[in-house]
Amino acid sequence: MISSSVVLRSLGGMDTTTELPRRPLGRYSYPTSHRVIEIVAVVAYVAFAVAFATRVVGAVSARWGTGTAVGVTVACFAAFVAADFLSGLVHGMCDNLGSVDTPVVGQKFIRSFREHHTDPMDMTRGDFIRVNADNFLACLPVLVPCVVWLDVEGHPYAATFVFSLTLVVIMTNQIHKWAHMPQVPAVVRTLQRSRLILSPEHHQIHHTPPFDTHYCITSGITNGPLAKIGFWPAMMRTCRWLGRR
Ligand SMILES: [Zn+2]
Ligand SMILES: [Zn+2]
């Protein structure tokens, strides 16, 4: 097995001590308006997630038993798999469809994926907000309607699935960042080795020419099956077809 530091160098290791100038809301290299949106998104997600989690835990506790435990486990595992698939779908589309000039999503989402292939180590120099806020923002259109309209007591497993899904999604970029870092906490390396989160060795497949497979970056659990059924070539053909329209 190759070590994280070997993977780091093979992915184009660069100086990780680059200092960004002090800006009003921390150290970052993009417009302050983006930074404000990111901070608002993180705060909003936490507020809605706490409210939703309280109701989900209450609904599950009220009917706790063997059947409920099985249902909650299945819902959490389904969310774990779905989050990995979604990470690959979004990543694949941002790598292959549109450009940094695409309205709305170009600068906010596509740019970070394109720049990641130019400098894979750049994300390891970003702080928590810069690395993770986009995913907090992406979860809000799912989480907020569920908080407002979902009958949690009547559909505790659906609520568990949605909550778990957003929880894994907001961790995805941090997991991706860890896969590029030369040094990670021992517990993170243990999770990587157990394949519960994306490992550097697994993710290196995506960063190896021709860069056309293994787009999933949460655990990577769906990368193998999707490659086997030819999902990635089909997705890239679809992106090229949509790009011509
Ligand atoms: Zn990529
Ligand atoms: Zn990467």
Task: Give an account of the 3D structure.
The structure is a single chain. This protein has helices at residues 4-10, 32-62, 66-96, 105-118, 128-149, 156-180, 186-193, 200-203, 223-228, 231-244; strands at 22-23, 26-27. With 245 residues, the protein is mostly helical. The protein has one domain. Strands 1-2 form a two-stranded antiparallel sheet. The structure holds zinc ion (2 copies). The site of one zinc ion has 5 residues, from helix 3 and helix 4.
Walk me through the topology:
Blueprint: H1 4-10, E1 22-23, E2 26-27, H2 32-62, H3 66-96, H4 105-118, H5 128-149, H6 156-180, H7 186-193, H8 200-203, H9 223-228, H10 231-244
Antiparallel strand pairs: 1-2
Helix pairs in contact: 2-5, 2-6, 3-6, 3-10, 5-6
The protein binds zinc ion (2 copies).
Residues 91, 95, 113, 117, 206 line the site of one zinc ion.
